[in-house]
Amino acid sequence: MDAARVGVITFxxxxxxxxxxxxxxxxxxxxxxxxxxxxxxxxxxAVVLPGGFSYGDYLRAGAxxxxxxxxxxxxDAAKGGLPVLGICNGFQVLCESHLxxxxxxxxxxxxxxxxxQRLRIDNADTAWxxxxxxxxEIVIPVKNRDGRYTADExxxxxxEDTGRVVARYLDLNPNGSLGDIAGICNExxxxxxxxxxxxxxxxxxxxxxxxxxxxxxxxxxRLVNA
Length: 226
Hints:
This protein is α/β, with parallel strands linked by helices and 226 residues long. The chain is 23% helix and 25% strand. Part of the FGAM synthase complex composed of 1 PurL, 1 PurQ and 2 PurS subunits.
C-alpha cells in the first residue's frame, strides 16, 4: 500500500508548517504541501493546520485565515469525515471556521507563553489520539499569545458530557483556558484542535520528549487500516 498522504496548509505567517511536515514524515506518511490560496486539497487523506500567525493575526487570531480559499475545501471535507488537526494557530482557525466550538482569547495576563507543558490525554478515541491511552501524561511545548480556550456554559458542559475534551493542562494552566482545556474534538472525532505543539516533541534531540509523535502515528495507522 502507498504511504498515507497528509496535507499541511501554509498561510502567510505560518511558522510550523515544516515542523509539521517533518513529524508526518517521521510517523511514516507523506507530507503534502498545500497553499492557502488554492482550491485543491490534492487528494490528501488528512490535513494539518500548523501553528504560526496566519495573516499576522490581524483582526483576531485565525479570523482572516478562516476565509482563505482552501479553507472552503477543508470545511466541506472535514464535514464529510476528512481527519483534520489544528495546532495552536490551526486550532484558532478551526474555531473561527466553526468546525470546533468556542474561541481562543488572549492569554490571562496578556503575555506570550513558551514552555514545556505537561498534559493529560482525556480522549484516546479520536482520529489523532488512538496511540495514547486515557489518562496518559505527556510533555510537549506550548507557545502562544491567544491560547485561552473559552466557551459558554452550555458548550462546556456538552464537551465534558460527551468526552470531547481531548487533552488538559496539568500542574499549571499556562493561558487561563476554562477547564484547563488544551484540546478538543468535534462530535465525530475526526477534527481535533490542540493548543500545545506535538510537532515539536517528535525527536529527543530537539524536543523535551517524543511524546508528540503519537498524534501523527495515530492518524497514519488509522489511514493505513481504513
